Structure prediction request, 164 residues.
Amino acid sequence: MAETHDHSRGAEPSPDVSNDSDLEEGPVGDDLEEGTVASIDFGKVSQIGRDGHQVVPVVLQDADTGDVLFIGYANDEALRLTFERRSAVLYSTSRDEIWHKGATSGDTLSLVEVRVNCEQNSLLYRVRRDGGGACHTRDADGSSRPGCYYRAVEDLQQLRHIDA
Ligand SMILES: [Zn+2]
Prediction:
């Protein structure tokens, strides 16, 4: 796929940011999310810039295991709400709105601590999973996956499921 625009993919461009089960609809994007063909959206960050979003990347990490759950984005309001609710709040750059992770699905993430990197241009939310998972996709048993990085990238073309 040559196009890098979000809307050319027929699905949400980045599962890490924009797809919560809260607003998911049907099987669209199944191939992107379940397949083993690499289709990495290298245009994602430049698209965020073109759209003018005032956000920083956020690493979501399980505070107990150290597992990286996914990467999202936050603006200042999302960070403020994260402190206020003691639960991970992000900004959906594709839906262009505040996104309280898991508000509908139940897979909310309780806040343990927020860290910032040296240059203060990214955040680390250390969290605990309130539900079973953190990803909107489901494994073979029908359970929410615990995190979004369930496939290894073998090379530029090929992915491999590591949770199967
Ligand atoms: Zn995911």
Remarks:
- The pocket of zinc ion is lined by residues 15, 70, 135-137, 148 (CB under 6 Å).
